[in-house]
């Protein structure tokens, strides 16, 4: 047998004249039977339940099994915290035992809970969900006189990306603010 599996019983097996002998073809985890030859002739069509059976044995025979590593799918789903789609799914096939590493796409204003999805491919498909959470940025408003000296302490707040903000300017006796209200939509950066 090739790497990735075994035949049992193995080695030379004595079979009574005109007798019957079954051989179990045992793939290892993550492998499957990919070929079987009996006396150097393809015999895959005669395999049932990973077993080949010799019947009416009257002479010596050889049996050889080949095993191949299986491929499995890695699917990465990219969603926002509300479970709506953030980016198209990434699907890729990997051989059993192979290392995989997939970087999560960058989405402005959001941070992925897994920047890289990495691991070793098991003997099954893998489904991973990467969740993007909205970033918060610092909104800073400076209140200054025309000569740039401080009129009032700065206003600072953490505002989520994409959120609307509206801040009324404080009243400073004998002065009129150039913006009575500072308003806008928070970009993906400090303002």
Task: Describe it.
The protein has no helices and 16 strands. It is mainly β. The radius of gyration is 34 Å and the shape is rod-shaped. It is 0% helix and 58% strand. The two termini are 67 Å apart. The model has no long low-confidence stretch (mean pLDDT 96). The strands form six sheets. It has a four-stranded mixed sheet with strand order 8-7-12-10, with no helix packed on it. A three-stranded antiparallel sheet has the order 1-2-5, with no helix packed on it.
Features:
mainly beta, 3-stranded antiparallel sheet
Helix content: under 10%
User: Which stretches are low in confidence, meaning pLDDT under 50 for 5 or more residues running?
Assistant: none
The assigned structural class equals: mainly beta
Radius of gyration: 34 Å
What sequence of helices (H) and strands (E) makes up the elements?
Answer: EEEEEEEEEEEEEEEE
The strands making up the biggest β-sheet line up spatially as 8-7-12-10
Mean pLDDT: 96
Instruction: Please outline the major beta sheet.
Output: 4 strands, mixed
Gap from first CA to last CA: 67 Å
Please report which band the strand proportion falls in: under 5%, 5-15%, 15-25%, 25-35%, 35-45% or over 45%. over 45%
Task: Tally the beta strands.
Answer: 16
- Helix count equals 0
Instruction: Categorize the overall geometry.
Output: rod-shaped
């Amino acid at each position: 047998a090739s790497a990735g599996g075994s035949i049992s019983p193995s080695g030379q097996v004595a079979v009574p004249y005109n007798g019957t002998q079954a051989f179990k073809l045992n793939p290892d985890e993550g492998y499957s039977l990919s070929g079987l030859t009996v006396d150097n002739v393809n015999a895959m069509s005669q395999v049932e339940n990973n077993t080949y059976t010799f019947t009416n044995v009257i002479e010596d025979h050889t049996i050889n099994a080949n095993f191949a590593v299986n491929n499995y799918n890695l699917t990465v789903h990219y969603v926002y915290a509300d479970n709506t789609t953030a980016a198209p799914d990434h699907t890729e096939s990997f051989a059993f035992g192979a290392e995989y590493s997939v970087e999560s796409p960058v989405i402005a204003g959001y941070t992925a809970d897994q920047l890289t999805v990495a691991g070793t491919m098991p003997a099954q498909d893998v489904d991973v969900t990467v969740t993007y959470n909205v970033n918060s940025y610092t909104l800073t408003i400076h209140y200054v006189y025309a000569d740039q000296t401080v009129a009032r302490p700065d206003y600072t707040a953490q505002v989520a990306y994409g959120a609307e903000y509206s801040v009324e300017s404080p009243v400073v006796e004998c002065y009129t603010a150039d913006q009575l209200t500072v308003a806008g939509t928070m970009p993906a950066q400090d303002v």
